[in-house]
Design a protein that fits this description.
6 helices, binds zinc ion, Carbonic Anhydrase II, transmembrane helix, three-stranded mixed sheet, binds 2-acetamido-2-deoxy-beta-D-glucopyranose, 13-stranded mixed sheet, alpha+beta, 2 domains, 377 residues, 28% helix
Length: 377
């Protein structure tokens, strides 16, 4: 039997299941979707001045603010399977985020959210190609009956979301920077309910009762602002987007952290049920629905799906183990198939060589006999 043919016949059954099964599994995951949640509300306002937009009125944002109808809008849904692993996305570095208690910060209910003004001494010094200075941070939340993060991950909305807004130091002010494509950098992190109080969030939450009415403000003592963000600043998603409130300028380089922040149930309920809106209702569901990607890429600083032979440092999510299980099954079937095929081929091979050994003398005898007969004839 031909050796090359034997090799091919062995490799095929081994390779086919190995190649096909993981591909089939992956084909099941869905692609980018735009879930528009009409009629829901969001908040957040880095700008100054009185604006009259509302989350009840999403459809009309683009009438008054044309950028709101653009093709690079935020927030978005992050589909982790579609995110592109980019090893050159370095850990985000925060400088000057730890503030002394004698530094007083302004906290305000602006009618859309709660805003904490930040001193310009806070800066982003790593992870972005350029330097950015902090301006303010604010939150987006839902209600006691539903979550209210702006970004979603694989279609999942989290309880709340924090945005820390920065502007590029090459511009003189936030107002100037916000109209330039490379003007702003916003860090976003998700808030979830967990066990125990979060002492950093308490620094803000304990003042909410003082600013229940729209336009009210109070002073907050300095604390470590970095405590409001995840300890792990290495794992994040990155994309080009916009402010999530009018004027929706498409000038934001977004960072969405993969690790989330935990608040106690009581803390979360203070967040969603204390501030009042311009309509004198509770300020709730101040999030904008996710926007169409329009072909934009989302980068990930880490591998979001494990590779077949050990993907390294991925976050061990349930989906990861599902993939691993799928891969293990694929290998198992491949090996089983190969072993069966090998045994079958060996059997045929043995059988044939036995026949050959038995046949040969007979055949030569026949030929020899025939020839000799002919010769003697
Ligand atoms: C964001 O926009 C800049 C400028 O156009 C571009 O160089 C960069 O590749 C974009 N980033 C992503 C993640 O697409
Ligand atoms: C973090 O990344 C993992 C792996 O891709 C993903 O399953 C999980 O949903 C992500 N969570 C967040 C909050 O980004
Ligand atoms: Zn925001």
């Amino acid at each position: 039997m031909n050796r090359a043919a034997l090799r091919v016949s062995l490799l095929l059954p081994l390779l086919l299941p190995l190649l096909l099964l993981p591909a089939l599994g992956r084909a099941g995951s869905n692609s980018e979707s735009d879930q528009e949640h009409g009629g829901e509300d969001p908040p957040h306002s880095p700008g100054k001045g009185h604006s009259h937009w509302s989350y009840e009125d999403l459809k009309h944002w683009s009438t008054d603010y044309s950028d709101c109808g653009g093709t690079k809008q935020s927030p978005i849904n992050v589909d982790t399977d579609q995110a592109i692993f980019s090893p050159d996305l370095r850990p985000i570095q925060l400088s000057g985020y730890s503030l002394p208690a004698n530094k007083q910060l302004k906290l305000k209910n602006n009618g859309h959210t709660v805003v904490l003004d930040l001193p310009e001494t806070l800066a982003l010094t790593g992870g972005y190609a350029q330097q950015y200075r902090a301006v303010q941070l604010h939150l987006h939340w839902g209600s006691p009956s539903g979550p209210g993060s702006e970004h979603t991950i694989n279609g999942r909305r989290f309880a709340a979301e924090i945005h820390v807004v920065h502007y590029n130091t090459k511009y003189d002010s936030f107002t100037e920077a916000m109209v330039h494509p490379d003007g702003l950098a916003v860090l976003g992190a998700f808030l979830e309910v967990g066990h125990g109080e979060n002492q950093y969030y308490n620094e803000i939450l304990k003042h909410l009762l003082e600013i229940q009415e729209v336009g009210q403000e109070t002073l907050v003592s300095g604390f470590n602002i970095a405590g409001l963000l995840p300890a792990n600043l290495k794992l994040y998603f990155h994309y080009n987007g916009s402010l999530t409130t009018p004027p929706c300028y498409q000038t934001v380089k977004w960072t969405i952290f993969n690790h989330t922040m935990l608040l106690s149930r009581d803390q979360m309920s203070v967040l969603v049920s204390t501030l009042r809106s311009p309509e004198d209702e509770l300020l709730q569901n101040n999030y904008r629905p996710v926007q169409n990607l329009h072909g934009r890429r989302v980068l990930a600083s880490f591998q979001t799906t494990p590779s077949l032979w050990g993907g390294g440092s991925s976050f061990p999510a349930a989906a990861t183990y599902a993939w691993l299980a799928g891969d293990v099954l694929a290998v198992l079937f491949g090996v089983l198939f190969a072993v069966t095929a090998l045994a079958f081929l060996l059997y045929i091979y043995k059988h044939r060589s036995q026949n050959t050994r038995l046949d040969s003398p007979t055949k030569s005898k026949v030929i020899y006999t025939a020839a000799s007969t002919e010769n003697t004839a």
